Amino acid sequence: MYCPVNPDRVTSGINLSESFADLYSKEHDVEVGIIPCADGGTCLDQWCVGGLLFDHACYMAELASRTSTIAAVLWHQGESDCSDERWPLYEEKLSVIMETLRKKLGLHDVPFLLGGLGDFLADFEGSPVFKNNYEKINASLKHYADTHEMTGFVSAKGLGSNPDNMHFSAKSLREFGVRYYEEFLKHEDKNKVFLEKATPDAAIRNEIESL
To answer: What are phi and psi of 174, to 5 degrees?
Structure first.
């Protein structure tokens, strides 16, 4: 698998979706594609419905859906909403984004997996808002997941960070992806049928590849 799968920054590296996709592929015996839409360091206001990041994610998903079927949505975000002004509105804003995303893309039977923030934020030496409020973001994520169908919360408890106490280490991200997959299995519709989506574009591509 090509790394980084989501080159949104020059420092981009391991992504938790990689180990998730690897497990899904092995256990379901299928090829798995990843739709990379993340943008590091962004807050929920930047993901508002109709905004650039939200629309980009929808366009990417709609394009991928022409030839494949979306099996899961992996969400990990929240550090930039740890400020005293933002965290109280986090769940309210998240709810609008998640519910609109489901409706717009027709993902009513697709598990949405929401990952928690790392406990190492308590040791971050920069702004105190991370130490003071990251657990409140985690509580909002978990409460949303617990009160909505086809939605799961993935704990980051015990996962380590890079020396900056801000970003997950590569080892921890791989483990995090495994945890996402384990949570996915709790919500997966085992009877869901994934139909083949043959398209003229695919036929042309296959024709060229066989030359």
So the answer is: -65, -40
